[in-house]
Amino acid sequence: MTYxxxxxxxxxxxxxxxxxxxxxxxxxxxxRWTQTKIAAAMKPAVSRQxxxxxxxxxxxxxxxxxxxLEDLLRIPMRAWAKRGAVKKTGTNG
Length: 93
Known about the structure:
5 helices; globular; 434 Repressor (Amino-terminal Domain); mainly alpha; two-stranded antiparallel sheet
């Protein structure tokens, strides 16, 4: 079986920018993921605003949430490391 790294119609193979990947997944036509669904899927849950900040690059998830995003949406943890000096966030955005 061949593995195709897609979430919806977003091809994750060549992308290494975490905020861009998350933004693309959220804006995919007919996409099944919303900020609210992603926030609720995180353990412990995060705010919808935190997911919004991750998607626009204002902040980035801490490593526990990065690992969950990798499992849930296939966004590699290394994609978040490329960002410059931005605020890391957990549950409070």
